[in-house]
Amino acid sequence: MARIIVIDDDHDVRALLVWDLRAAGHEVRAAADGAEGLSLQRASPAELIVTDIYMPEKEGIETIRELKEQYPALKIIAISGGGSAQGARRAFSTRDLAVVAAELGVAAILQKPFASEELLRSVDAALGKH
């Protein structure tokens, strides 16, 4: 199966994503923020990144941009549960997120909460599996 890195600052969400992806047979590593995720990718590149958008330290949009600059073919799934990025006082709407995702070349964007099946379908689609 695929090598995947999960980036999410919420320990419980991160653990659940890792569990779901490992249960589906993927090799998964996890990071608590974008800086740690970038470090993992540089050390041993993954085929797919699943990253939260709203995180302290290095937030998701910045992380996605940096990953796409360094690894243009990398598949990325962005996840969002609301919140604010880098102190911005408004949350992105679903439409805003879709625009940002398209501009950044993200394979999919999932709004929390989402079902495990939705995550796994998005992973399969991003990796070109049906």
The arrangement of helices and strands along the chain is EHEHEHEHEH
Class by alpha and beta content = alpha/beta
Distance separating the two termini: 13 Å
Count of distinct structural domains: 1
Would you identify the regions where 5 or more consecutive residues have pLDDT less than 50? 84-90
Helical segment count: 5
DSSP E strands, number: 5
Query: In CATH, what is the class?
Result: Alpha Beta
User: What is the average per-residue confidence, as pLDDT, rounded to a whole number?
Assistant: 87
Helix fraction, binned, reads 40-55%
Question: Would you give the CATH topology?
Answer: Rossmann fold
Strand order of the main beta sheet, please?
2-1-3-4-5
Strand % is 15-25%
CATH superfamily: Response regulator
Label this structure with key terms.
5 helices, 5 strands, 130 residues, Rossmann fold, 19% strand, five-stranded parallel beta sheet, alpha/beta
Blueprint of the fold:
Blueprint: E1 3-7, H1 11-23, E2 27-31, H2 34-43, E3 48-52, H3 60-70, E4 75-80, H4 94-104, E5 108-111, H5 116-126
Parallel strand pairs: 1-2, 1-3, 3-4, 4-5
Helix pairs in contact: 2-3
Description:
The structure is a single chain. With 130 residues, the chain is of the alpha/beta class. It has a single domain, classed as Response regulator (Rossmann fold, 3-Layer(aba) Sandwich). The chain contains five helices and five strands. It has a five-stranded parallel beta sheet with strand order 2-1-3-4-5, sandwiched between helices. Helix 2 runs parallel beside helix 3. It is globular, with a radius of gyration of 13 Å. The chain starts with a strand and ends with a helix. About 5% of the residues have low confidence.
